[in-house]
Amino acid sequence: MTPSPIRTALLAYGMSGKLFQAPFLAAHAGFELYAVVERTEQRMHHDYPTIRSYPSVAEVLADSSVELVVVNTPSYTHFDLASQALRAGKHVLVEKPVATSVAQWQELVALAEQQGRHLLAYQNRRWDSDFMAVRRVVESGQLGQLIEVHIRYDRYKPALNPKKFKEEPNPGAGLVYDLGPHIIDQALSLFGKPLATHKVTGKFRPSSQVDDFFSLQLRYPHSLNVWLTSSLLVAAPGPAYVLHGTLGSYQKGRTDVQESQLQQGISPLAPEYGHEQPGQEGLLTLANSDGTLATTADPATPGDYIGLFEAVFQTIRQGAAYPISHEQLLWQNELLESPSTGL
User: Fold this and answer.
1) What was the pLDDT predicted at 293?
2) Number of domains in the chain
3) 64 and 144 belong to one structural domain
4) What CATH number is given to the structural domain containing 40?
5) Looking at residue 3, what is its pLDDT?
6) End-to-end CA distance of the chain
7) What is the mean predicted confidence (pLDDT) over 153-174?
8) How far is it, in rounded angstroms, from Cα 163 to Cα 166?
9) I want to staple 212 with a disulfide (CB 3.0 to 4.6 A). Which of 232, 238, 248, 333 is the partner?
């Protein structure tokens, strides 16, 4: 018997809802994209004519037919809105960061267990083509014992964000909480919890009140060191991933095309969706038995965020383990909240 689709509501239809959630909920047969919260202008029906628009979160949570709520609102609201949704008996898919403190995350986990509902994190960058290529190389063992790994997520945005909540020094603001959850999650999914960490943050844009640079060093067993770095003032980004091991090296740019394709209105079901452009291959350099080195281009498989939604579906309908565990999210929040050395 085919499971019924999961009736789903979005709590907003900004960039995240429009690009990263709605197209996949509409494309995946396991979901029914059913409702949205739009307090003022009702825009979503232009893209999805059958959508039900509610003027408040309370009203969408009062709809007993809604099973899953996507919390895709500003970071500082995640804890409160996820709590409300869980108390209303809904499963919750919450955007990054899932909380702004360890205490908040632990409270959400306890509430989900008490309510018998799934609390799931939207960490879509695990399904980027570039990161999936990196994971494949790491798991293949071709590089031998890993010595150092560098993961970067850089942009060039010297102007302050017009969305004031992103620039005011409140919980969840700043680059650590904006781009940090992406690359922290990638590192934790590859290597687990580190033995020790060191964080450096800085403010370099004119009049910035929040961090616009950070670097996290994670130390692992066997002397593996992983650096996670992000900046809003990198005009010429280098490779996003650089890995060095005893048998070779690998580097890969931030080449996933999904976000740009979604901005162009390309459907996740289109044949060209998720395919990187020629020339964006990773570079794999391995030592031969005679000590010489050989570098080859390493093509990536297509990225596909629908993999995240398939995982959500399997967890809710089939009871499968969700790949982004509560424990990993606890470690992430510990790193986000950890003290830093300012620059």
Assistant:
1) 96
2) 2
3) no
4) 3.40.50.720
5) 86
6) 59
7) 93
8) 6
9) 232
Q: CA of 37: how far to CAs of 7, 24, 42, in Å? A: 15, 18, 9
Same domain, 105 and 167: no
Domain that holds residue 69: 6-122+308-321
For the chain, what is the HEC assignment? CCCCCEEEEECCCCHHHHHHHHHHHHHCCCEEEEEEECCCCCCHHHHCCCCEEECCHHHHHHCCCCCEEEECCCHHHHHHHHHHHHHCCCEEEEECCCCCCHHHHHHHHHHHHHHCCCEEEECHHHHCHHHHHHHHHHHHCCCCCEEEEEEEEECECCCCCCCHHHCCCCCCCCHHHHCHHHHHHHHHHHHCCCCEEEEEEECCCCCCCCCCEEEEEEEEHHHEEEEEEEECECCCCCCCEEEEECCEEEEECCCCCHHHHHHCCCCCCCCCCCCCCCCCCEEEEEECCCCCEEEEEECCCCCCCHHHHHHHHHHHHHCCCCCCCHHHHHHHHHHHHCCCEEC
| pLDDT per position as a tens digit, 19-55 | 999 999 999 999 999 999 998 888 999 999 999 999 9
Q: Do both 152 and 28 map to the same domain? A: no
CB contact at 8 A, 72 and 16: yes
